[in-house]
Amino acid sequence: MLLAFSSLSFQQTQNYDTVSKRKAAFLYNFTKLFDWPEKMKSGNFIIQIVGSNNNLNQELNRMASTKQIGNRKLEIRITSTLDPSLNPHIIYLLKESSDLLKDANSKYKGNGTLIVTEKAGAAKQGAAINFIVADDKLAIEYSKNNAKKTGLKTGDAITALAIAVD
Prior knowledge:
disordered N terminus; single chain; two-stranded antiparallel ribbon; Rossmann fold
């Protein structure tokens, strides 16, 4: 019986997705690094994921069950397309949904929604934050101009964590 438990534990360790865990941690930390417009400072704090990544979804839902944003509940919404009726604080376009970036910029302009992507060059195409791999490590690109276009303000903390693209 002990052998079976050891095998299971080893298998779970091998299946553990550290990239998804790091992305979830970044997304949570973004909630603290931006100054959200007044109209976005009440109700649940919504992170909308557009696309499918089961490991990321699990990490975010685990986080949402234990953490809050100030005194607000963290709510994770998984969708296959843009849904502005959710009024998300953060919208994360997974790689397979990156063709929605132009539409997201149009729909969320001035709304106070942080647009996050994971496709090469997306920060130069309108995303405020773009996950990349640099030197075999997960990193982020940051476009302050794109964040401003959606109505967000930020301090210097994010610039210390990110590669600036403008």
